[in-house]
Amino acid sequence: MGGTGEAGRRGDGARRPVGRRPGESGSRDAILAAARDTFAERGFAGATMRAIAARAGVDPSLIRHFFGSKAALFAAAVAAGSDVASHLRDALTGPRDGIGARVADAYLRLWEDPEVGEALRALIRSGVALGGPAEQLLEAIGASDGAPLPLERVLAGTHLLGVAYARFIAQLPAVAALDHDELVELIAPAIQRYLVPDGASRG
Amino acid sequence: MGGTGEAGRRGDGARRPVGRRPGESGSRDAILAAARDTFAERGFAGATMRAIAARAGVDPSLIRHFFGSKAALFAAAVAAGSDVASHLRDALTGPRDGIGARVADAYLRLWEDPEVGEALRALIRSGVALGGPAEQLLEAIGASDGAPLPLERVLAGTHLLGVAYARFIAQLPAVAALDHDELVELIAPAIQRYLVPDGASRG
DNA sequence: ACATCAATTCGCCAGTTGTGGAGTTTCGTT
DNA sequence: AACGAAACTCCACAACTGGCGAATTGATGT
Predict the structure, then answer these.
(1) Ramachandran angles phi, psi of A184, nearest 5°
(2) What is the mean pLDDT of residues A72-94?
(3) Looking at strand D, which nucleotides approach a protein CB closer than 7 A?
(4) SS3 of residue A178 by DSSP
(5) CA B141 to chain centre
(6) Residue A158 CA from chain centroid, whole number
(7) DSSP alpha helix (H) spans, B80-172
(8) Ramachandran region of residue A69, left (φ > 0), alpha (ψ -120 to 50) or beta?
(9) Cys-Cys crosslink for B31: which of B56, B85, B143, B192, Cβ 3.0 to 4.6 Å?
(10) Superfamily of domain B27-77
(11) Architecture of domain B81-195
(12) What is the dihedral of CA A178, A179, A185, A187, to 10 degrees?
């Protein structure tokens, strides 16, 4: 299925000079950013190293020079999204009052961070089977502090995951167009009811 | 990234005879089933026609003979999962009492159908941008009967989607191990509260 | 019996993919 | 000033990809 090729962000068709560039080039970071974007858009299999290199404005071999292989590049690119759990711990360990809103806010804020958000999209789009962000989120919420209701906490995680999917991946207008605080307010009650069994204290 | 090749479900290494087989071969259906499975496991880009053919026990060219192209095969393979909306209409148009449990039950039952479920997995794994099952589910629930609260209905859809993701795609043990009815009972209240604004009528 | 059509495989092609080797230019250190 | 290491590109390759034409075999209608 012949693609027309990716017009590079930096590549303008003219041959780049060979050899090291003067000063700080930032090529490594450019590659990581391009990889995150491309993996997020097309998934692991659909993203080609040539497309990533073109987007970063470098030669494909430079990717290998820095990262070794496509799999290693993927791992490096999505590293930012690999510890969802730790970012939610604060929100989860706070007082039960308003915990639904706090967790929803923290989770959505995570997705809104450009680096983390693209990494999460890349991970989900690539369908990473084990250790993926979905499992991590769900398990993190479920087993956060040895609470007696891990299952219902996992269900809270599924709701958050579904909201994130609709807002950031499917980009469904109804959900994606909402203001951050608006969305938090809307889903907070449901999260709250899962996290604390008796449905007290509004979001 | 050189794979070792897919050991065919039917292919045993021996050369298959050329020419038409006697009797009903069922090759077309075998191809569709193999395509659904493979697309579900690896996504559109990751699934190769050769892998699908091997899984179905046929020559890759037979796929082209029947379906024309990889894209057309994909479309045919996921057709079963393309009208999520219609299958939920009954559950949504019933009485408000117990609508949460009814919708949750109908939705999960959809995923449990082998044909539909694999089609949905394939669609989500492939990241179909528009018209995908995620959008369809969400929009179907949101706009079902011109109700005054489409947004909150969409949020119910996000929860269901997240549950399905955890149970059928990520296959998170905590959610995947649950009995169907158990799971319905657990999430029904949340769905119910989204679908009817005043949180009346249990499960 | 004969002609027609569908099912099926084989071999091939042009393009793409990830990877690797070899060379060139600059940086950092001594 | 010399020199090793790092950044960077070009070229090539072997494998794989989707797609296609052609040949072979069986089923079906007349």
Answers:
(1) -55, -45
(2) 87
(3) 6-11, 15-27
(4) coil
(5) 17
(6) 16
(7) 84-93, 99-112, 114-125, 133-142, 150-164
(8) beta
(9) B56
(10) Homeodomain-like (1.10.10.60)
(11) Orthogonal Bundle (1.10)
(12) 40
- Give me the tens of pLDDT residue by residue for chain B, a chain 203 residues long: 433 333 334 434 456 766 666 667 799 999 999 999 999 999 999 999 999 999 999 999 999 999 999 999 999 999 888 788 888 888 988 899 999 999 999 999 999 999 999 999 998 888 765 445 555 555 555 544 445 457 888 899 999 999 999 999 888 888 999 999 999 999 999 999 999 877 444 44
Length of chain A: 203
Enter the DSSP assignment of B25.
-
B61 touches strand D (CB under 7 A): yes
Query: Distance from residue B20 (CA) to nucleotide C6 (C1'), in Å?
Result: 8
| A176 vs B: CB within 8 A | no
Q: How many Å apart are CA A199 and CA B109, to the nearest integer?
A: 28
Total residue count of chain B as it appears in this document? 203
Instruction: Look up residue A3 and give its two tokens.
Output: 């693609």
CATH 1.10.10.60 residue window(s) in chain A? 27-77
What is the token pair recorded at A64? 């290998």
Tell me if chain A has a CB within 8 Å of the CB of B82: no
Q: How far apart are CA B161 and CA B194, in angstroms?
A: 14
Q: In Å, how far are B79, B169, B180 from B140, measured between CA atoms?
A: 17, 21, 23
Q: What is the pLDDT of residue A63?
A: 98
If you count DSSP H runs as helices and E runs as strands, how many of each does chain B have, helices first?
A: 11, 0
- How many Å is the Cα radius of gyration of chain A? 20
In chain B, which segments carry CATH 1.10.357.10? 81-195
d(CA B28, nearest CA chain A) in Å: 23
**CB of A22 nearer than 7 A to strand D:** no
Q: Determine the pLDDT at residue A71.
A: 93
Which residues 51-80 of A are in CB contact (within 8 Å) with B?
Answer: 70-71
Between CA A28 and CA A39 the distance in angstroms is 16
Spatial CB neighbours of B76, under 8 Å, sequence gap ≥ 6 = B32, B35, B67
Report d(CA A8, CA A99) in Å as an integer: 44
Nearest to B45 by CA among A178, A96, A16, A43: A43
